[in-house]
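Backbones bend. We report:
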Amino acid sequence: MDNFAISGRGVGKRYRRLLRTERHDSMRDVIAAGVRDMFASKAAREERNVRNSFWALKDANFDIAPGENVGIIGLNGAGKSTLLKLLSRITTPTTGSIKIKGRLGALLEVGTGFHAELTGRENVFLYGSILGMSRKEVEAKFDAIVEFAEIAEFIDTPVKRYSSGMYVRLAFAVAAHLDPDILLLDEVLAVGDFAFQRKCMNFAKQLQHRGATILFVSHNMFSIKTMCQRVIYLKKGQIVFDGPTAEGLKIYEADSRLADVPWFDEPEGGRRITFSDVQLLNQRGEESTVFDFGERMSVRLKYKTKGRVERPDVRIGFDRDDDTHCMTFSTQSDGASPAYLDGEGVIELKTPPLKLISDLYVCNVVVRDLGGNMLSGQIGGRFHVRHPDFSAGVWGVFHEGGEWRVTAAEEATRTEVKDGVS
């Protein structure tokens, strides 16, 4: 492919895994390790490096045309951020080559390139120079950057006092006004509020209309569907799908079912409870992914424990596909906590009539102990709520009918006088 913005061939990145026995806590440890390396053979050193290393990305081949919006998707640890760091030249590939045509802007971490002690104004110039903008260019775009970031009253405040949302707004504003030919975004929009996320997406679309190429890493499939016509799906460091967004998301959703939720950290000693199956059932008892507004859903969980789990709090939460948390059911708060779970079994929740507005949702299953520690956290699956009128843009998260009273002005006056109100 000759007409490309980005081209990669055989791209791989290998990192060395530091084992506990190799940690150097003193100068003596460092010297001893250096002496061992000095007298070890080259073959022995290479063997040890291979044994103690892992491939974050391996044998990736791709071509991205000018003007394409491409989503980079995959579960945690799939290699998404590694790929963007290679493209932005933060790090170099272990194998293969990458060719880039055009000016590249990258926003990979909140506040990357900012200095905490400097003001927002000073950081605009600092970050702009890091991205390759001249001082004259930053001066010409300064007012537009501040207006876009919506932090004019804090622009002369040190950024160490900024919230994470203010950080990302200013950083995105600078990167976007670089007028890049290629823009790399890595999950940073999740920090801003919903209105700013939409503003950034609209700005990204304007860049695309001007012929810019955008690569977007996100766990938010709503954003991917909105912005991207194509996705590259990474799994364990390798590209397993490269094609139309709708098809790629189907594969991603199938793989993510029962995967760990992004915020779950494996407890010391391993997890004590795991869910092997989660079924979402409609009112007829049939497994379904589409539920009508007002319909009751049953969530059936098959679990297996590793030892006895005392007084577990099983929680089932529904998140909208843009990561907005909507509701949580809990055995503890609902007065249904089992005394213990041991071995294998089934837990079933029957929801009240669903009053969530028409949209796509994710079901997450979490188990906590009496101290609030998370014992397990898995993705249960995705589902739609269907209604002809109640959509997210107008009705918010859920809709519950209220009691209304409409009174003409004359009648309201007579009522007040009758009640002794003047």
